[in-house]
Specification:
Number of helices: 23
Number of strands: 9
Structural class: alpha/beta
Largest sheet: 7 strands, mixed
Oligomer: single chain
Helix content: 55-70%
Shape: elongated
Distance between the termini: 76 Å
Amino acid sequence: MSVTFDRRDVIAGLSIAGLMLPEAIAYSGIAGVPAQHAILAAIMGCIVYAIFGQSRFAVVSPTSSSAAILAAMLATLSVTPAQKMLLVAISVALVGILFLLAAATRLGALSSVISRPVLRGFAFGLAILITIKQLPSLFGIKEQTGEPLAILLQIFSHPRDWSLESIVVGLTALAILLLLRKRPILPGSLVVIVAGIAVSVLLDLQSRGVAIVGPIDLAGIWAGPLSVSLDDVAHVARFAPPLVLILFAESWGTIRSFSLRHGENVDSNRELRAFGLANIASAAVQGMPVGAGFSAGAASEAVGPQSRLASAIAAIGLAIFSLLAAGWFAFIPQAVLAAIIAVALLHALDPTPIIRLWRLGNDAWLALAAAAGVLAFGVLNGMLVAVALSFAVFVRRLSLPHVMHLGRLGDSHDFVDMERHPDAKDIPGMIILRPAQPLFFGNAEPILAAVTKRIAARPELRVAIISLEESFELDSTALDALLEFDAAMQRGDTTVYYARMHDHVRDLLLAGGGSDLVARSSFSVDDAVTTAMGRENNHATAS
């Protein structure tokens, strides 16, 4: 790691550690695992990322979304605590391996598998789900499980079960956190944690019915029998791909936004490797899945680290804080953690991005559908719904037959869409068309059918030019559809010339029996027009 020591990195690292400590404890509560597993994961994640990552703002630690998926994974397991944490380690190791495989195969584009509107909707729904699940701690009632509506119904239909002391503690913590958000230089979560511990000890809140976190044993890993059934391993293995998708989509979105804002270059494949190694390191200490969450990254940006050394200092600071204060963590009120989680999720609960999509008249329904999927079907199935929505929209947009009618712009060599440019003119005696999407098995036939319909509407013409600039390659279905289209045109006495044909498409046509099409292809629309006019004039002269 090539970095230069800067005093500001020490200050930034310690400030980040102050944020990571309460968030780690809070996210362990979401996942339903002992807090030490989140703390150790944050320490390992930050150290490994400081060595192998690129962004000086990334804070690689447990995130709320991965914690929620982990909770869904553990919810149906009937195992001992030691076996549960062994299964967590296995799942996190699988996440790390999948990240490394993606890096080795240079699948950095994996971050685009989930479109941004769908990711925002998923994050919005997940934030609502997590916030609702914090309400029992805030109201001081026994933990409620089940669907969000069932939890809300259970809470608000039994007001006699509420703990006034828990509500007061939680709302006070919430108010302080919201006030301190205006001063990002102060680690608000750490301030609230320290104050919560002091109040808990001085007023003996536990005796007043306020639930507390309980003891945290940083040495309590790899304890107990290290054996689990293959069925349980198979169960946790199916959660690894969704964890990779959401971790990298969230992390890359965070890192990319910071890099663009500060003019820094980051390589997605190198980030994949860094996240893979960080998760394997976390698995070695039975830690939770780790990634670069937005709230921690935003706090890091606010304190201004100068290099990735700040991440390593944050890990060291977190380790020192935890060792010195582990005995006091037991007195943290659960209501305080609920408030910390709620405030940490405020960025995801902000409806502004969805409202913007609505105003643009584009993709808002995708975001809302993804949010509804999480709330209706749970975290894992909601994740699958989000991925399916992204692919469905992608395929739908590629499959809709959109064919542009091109005309020459003035006396230039430029050919543009005549619907968008009324001053463009047709070339006499021919029609020039361009499919707006690349041809593939899902759209080749309907798009070429739309092209055929356009040509058939002009029976007086005997020449058509098809621009294939959007199709950088063809699969076998699209290749056969193009050959069949050309043969049908020739049977109807229409000669088709091709423009902007990519070299790879030429190679496929030559290998697939389309040498005649290649002979009638040009590298530009203007060249195709000139070639077609010359050949047609020669035919007319010969006749």
